[in-house]
Amino acid sequence: MLDYIRKLGANTMHSIAVLGRSGLFLWHSLVGIPDFRNGMPLLIKQLYSVGVLSLVIIIVSGLFIGMVLGLQGYNILVDYGSEQAIGQMVALTLVRELGPVVTGLLFAGRAGSALTAEIGLMKATEQLSSMEMMGVDPLRRIIAPRLWAGFISMPILAIIFSAVGIWGGMLVGVDWLGVYEGSFWANMQSSVSFEKDILNGIIKSLVFGFVCTWIAVFQGYDSVPTSEGISVATTKTVVYSSLAVLGLDFVLTAVMFTAF
Amino acid sequence: MVSNNDALNSGVSNSGVSNSYVEIRGMSFSRGDRLIFNDIDIDIPRGKVTSIMGPSGTGKTTLLRLIGGQLKPRDGTIIVDGQNISRLKRKQLYLARERMGMLFQSGALFSDINVFENVAFPLRVHTRLPEDMIRDIVLMKLQAVGLRGARDLMPSELSGGMTRRVALARTIALGPDLVLYDEPFAGQDPIAMGVLVQLIRLLNDALGMTSVLVSHDVSEALSISDNVCIIADGKVIGQGSPKYLKEQGSALVKQFLQGLPDGPVPFHYPATDYKTDLLSGN
Question: What is the ipTM of this complex?
Fold first, then answer.
């Protein structure tokens, strides 16, 4: 029993220490005078590898999820003679929930794991140490551009995901199942509010982008510099990011869409 | 016969403060429960080549990282060019490191850029030199290490020895005041090793640098060193000029410098009796 309490205490202390380290890590990475001359090319490079290279998985997933939503929505709504509301259903589901959440999960799996593995390998091969010894802060040079790239890319990816998803829903609902196109778009236009739905969806994706990228870069930077250590860190990135996205989604949904 | 003055003239024990680029006083450092350094004093004379030697696992690379401020000592002080390196704030530490260079054992080249860009990296970050001047400096540094022709290769296309030579070119790109070399001769063929030995000495003298060299290649390191520091069991077991240590050093020092298998320094890591271990079955 005493041993159990000791282990519990040690684990708690360890968790608090990791949390503290990650906070300091974030502070040193982001707080300071920005260096646009050196920083901008690095940011553009990271926007490409974090954002542009994630486009394929985002577009394909968005398309299929939209198509499935269209199909499922039609099958349910047709029983009530309300299949005209399919556009409204697909759009609200994507913009409010599935867009930010699924993009967050895909982002963690595709870009997050790549960031962790890259930074972990840089640590294991002493590239980060050599940078430090050259008087270059790796937190500003390596971590900060990746953090900003994740923060900027994620809402754009979520918007693309939702747009492609709506198009997928239209393909199935209108082109395949014969729902009247005018009703599809008109219902969507009348029921989707920019401030309540689209803006809140973007805010969600900003939060998810920030948290997922923070977890990914910190896990890489804090990893044990061995092949096993990098493997563990990459797994942690995907697991922690996915849990964070789902947990935060509930909290944000409660705050944004519940009328207390 | 070498007098003790020979050791003192090398700027080791009683040299004035201003003559030492690095002064380590009463420094202790441990990793977990393992004590790596126990209350050691070391002086690295300014403008000289100092070799740090000792058996494997005695913390020679750790000592370089302590001097570079990447690790903090448990006790004691490490003064680098008049600054207590372990007490510097983050920004001051990075400024101090701009005057240092460290050659890592693995080379630590940036794997996403080619040889030319690796050597140009510190110049691009810390200076605003025009591109044609950066090109000239990089080619001069690469010529010095014999790899001008390899400028377009990626680090993954280099051998271990070539990687370390490119890393050396990058280390000296900015002309630092203090250069820390971690095993610069490992993996080099005899020709490259001979050139590197001369290059380290030449750079030190021509640019007025201070060099700290960690190496197991005793004859090469001693041939270019003004000062040698030998570490074993967390203590400094000998400091002085190579000549002084060869002739006046303790049995421990002589065993290490001559590479003798029998002596005070054990070959085996501490363990239970060999016979008992084999017969125990577990």
Answer: 0.80
